[in-house]
Write a sequence for this structure.
């Protein structure tokens, strides 16, 4: 899941740059671009909600076991439970990660069109963008 | 009386708020309740960086790594380094571009902060059990 968090962080920061570069000006496809970005944000929020549902609800009940138990059997059960939670979470989260990548590609298509039309972009923001890649 | 364009733009909800409104009601409620970001929005970014730095230190001490779905070995600290870098870039955008207010986008960062804390619990429990 840390990989998913890393990807989500990257998109949040990258799209802050895109918002200031592309969405502050009037463009014929601005509303479509806004729609595509909003869809990506929606998938990111859904990813965070799903991850939180899987990890937070279960960890609350498991903390006392890990702290109190000394027996190897209980530890074995705990590890098995944690591994199951991780496996289930990954199964549930991987389609959302794929959806995140797909929505990102959709937005990239819009940005290519805007770039081709020759948008003017301020230099400090461009250097931030270059640093992200 | 006509409203100046700058004012109408400020009244529009941010894209993050629009995305939040598109979520099903239960997910929206879960996000709002668990993240509790109604107050001190500005301090959330500092607090995310604090959590990331703390976990980076722990990962450096414990040298955590795992294998991903593709079988590649991933070093957790490297991922945390990247998250810290992205967060810094995000803050920088708010400084460079006056039109972009980073406060609108604290919601996902609050989610990432919460999950980082949970990930640490999972990783430490799994590692200490062996």
């Amino acid at each position: 899941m840390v990989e998913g968090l890393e990807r989500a962080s990257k998109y949040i920061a990258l799209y802050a740059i895109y918002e200031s570069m592309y969405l502050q000006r009037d463009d014929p496809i601005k509303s479509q671009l806004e729609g595509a970005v909003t869809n990506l944000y929606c998938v990111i929020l859904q990813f965070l909600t799903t991850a939180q549902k899987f990890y937070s609800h279960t960890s609350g009940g498991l903390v006392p076991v890990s702290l109190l138990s000394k027996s190897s059997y209980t530890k074995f059960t705990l590890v098995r439970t944690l591994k199951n939670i991780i496996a289930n979470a990954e199964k549930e989260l991987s389609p959302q990660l794929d959806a995140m990548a797909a929505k990102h590609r959709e937005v990239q298509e819009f940005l290519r069109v805007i770039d081709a039309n020759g948008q003017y972009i301020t230099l400090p923001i461009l250097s931030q963008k270059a640093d992200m890649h | 009386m006509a409203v100046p364009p700058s004012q109408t733009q400020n009244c529009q909800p941010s894209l993050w708020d629009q995305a939040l409104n598109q979520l099903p009601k239960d997910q929206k409620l879960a996000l709002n309740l668990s993240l509790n970001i109604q107050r001190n929005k500005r301090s959330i970014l500092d607090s995310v960086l604090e959590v990331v730095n703390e976990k980076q230190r722990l990962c450096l001490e414990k040298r955590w790594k795992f294998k991903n779905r593709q079988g590649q070995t991933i070093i957790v600290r490297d991922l945390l380094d990247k998250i810290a870098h992205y967060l810094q870039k995000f803050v920088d955008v708010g400084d460079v571009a006056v039109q972009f207010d980073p406060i609108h986008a604290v919601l996902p960062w609050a989610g990432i902060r919460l999950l980082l804390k949970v990930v640490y619990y999972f990783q430490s429990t799994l590692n200490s059990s062996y």
Q: What stands out?
A: Chain A is about 85% helix and 0% strand. Chain A touches chain B through 53 residues (CB under 8 Å). Residues 82 and 115 of chain A are 47 Å apart (CA to CA). The radius of gyration of chain A is 20 Å.
